[in-house]
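Look at one such:
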Amino acid sequence: MKYCTVVEFEWEDAAQREAFEQLTLAGGGVVDGRLVRVIGVDDAGARAIEVWASPDDARRFAERTAPDLGSTALPAPSRVFGFEVSAFEVA
C-alpha cells in the first residue's frame, strides 16, 4: 500500500530557508521506496510531500535521516502527517 508524508516548515530567518534549500534542492537523489518527491519553498516556509511504496519505507527513511537534521539550521517542522494513498495517478 502506498503512503504519503507531508512535512511543513515555517521560517524564522533567511538562514533556515537557506539550510532547507541546501538540504533538499541540491538533489535528493534516488531513495529506496520513494516514488514521488515534491518540494515547495516560499518566503514563509516550505512543504515536502513524498509518496512511498509503503509506510515502512517512509519510516526507515525518517529514522535514517533524523540524526542528520539535528545538526542543521532547520527549524523543527511546524506540521507533519501521513496517510495511506487511496488513488495514485501520474500524467
Notes: Residues 55-69 form the longest helix (15 residues).
